[in-house]
Amino acid sequence: MAPGDWSFSKQHGLILVRPLPFCVDYCPCIHKTGDRGLPGDKEQSPWFSERQFTGAGRSAEQAAVGKNLRVLLVEDEVALRQLALKVLSNHGYRVTCAENGEEAWQTLQAEEFDLLVTDIQMPKMTGNELVKKVLCSRPELPVLMMSGYNPEGQVPDEVLFLPKPFTPQQLVEKVAALHTP
Questions:
Q1: CATH topology for 31-179?
Q2: Does the pLDDT of residue 75 top 60, yes or no?
Q3: Closest to 122 (Cα-Cα) out of 13, 28, 7, 25
Q4: Domain coordinates of the chain in residue numbers?
Q5: What confidence category does residue 93 fall into, taking pLDDT thresholds of 50, 70 and 90?
Q6: Quick count: other Cβ atoms within 10 Å of Cβ 143?
Q7: In this structure, are residues 71 and 93 in contact, taking their beta carbons and an 8 Å threshold?
Q8: In what order do the strands lie in the sheet with 160-163?
Q9: Which residues of the chain form beta strands (DSSP E)?
Q10: In whole angstroms, what is the distance from residue 79 CA to residue 45 CA?
Q11: Fewest CB within a 10 Å sphere: which of 9, 81, 108, 181?
């Protein structure tokens, strides 16, 4: 990526601040099948290791943010899903991943979650379709929608919105806002 070229960060929905080194290890998701890993991830990204997350290096303050709450993270972009998984796990959330709305809906039928974080533009079932179903069946479930597109008129009033690209800190703050008064 050339200096000043933000096409990668816009495409993947994250902001990297240079010249700091950037290295991420992540905790593999646990899916409804009990398998570890990310569904649909055919190839391993060189940015991430498969080492299981142990919480090493996580401060007590970071761990307290998520309060061990269960989050369903729905994102079709592998790099952003992995980054969000790492960030939220580091802040004390227990994260289950889905790569599209259809998979997320099936997971929501089988398991209980405290929070839903979903992209809007996805294959099979969009975030909008997923959120409509969730608001009808579980209106008490807090929802955060995120998108790199202008969601004008697409985000219900009872749902928080996070525009892409965003920093890891912005993600943590928005997710925390879902469960803190």
A1: Rossmann fold (3.40.50)
A2: yes
A3: 13
A4: 31-179
A5: very high
A6: 23
A7: yes
A8: 94-98, 70-74, 115-119, 143-147, 160-163
A9: 70-74, 94-98, 115-119, 143-147, 160-163
A10: 8
A11: 181
Q: What are the tokens at 100?
A: 């599209």
d(CA 172, CA 181): 15
Q: Which of 154, 166, 174, 145 is nearest to 73 (CA)?
A: 145
**CB 19, CB 13: distance < 8 Å:** no
What is the residue whose two structure tokens read 């391993």?
Answer: 44
User: What pLDDT was estimated at residue 31?
Assistant: 41
Which of these, 60, 70, 49, 160, lies nearest to 112 by C-alpha position? 70
pTM of the model: 0.70
- Over residues 100-153, the pLDDT tens digits come to 999 999 999 999 999 999 999 999 999 999 999 999 999 999 999 999 887 777
Bridge partners of residue 162, in order along the sequence: 146
pLDDT for the residue 153: 78
Q: How far apart are CA 85 and CA 97, in angstroms?
A: 8
Q: In the numeric block, which tokens belong to residue 38?
A: 């990310």
Q: In angstroms, rounded to a whole number, what is the distance separating the alpha carbons of residues 28 and 153?
A: 34
Q: Which residue has the tokens 């990310």?
A: 38
Query: In this structure, what token pair is assigned to residue 62?
Result: 């970071």
**Which residues have C-beta within 8 Å of that of residue 106, sequence separation ≥ 6?**
32
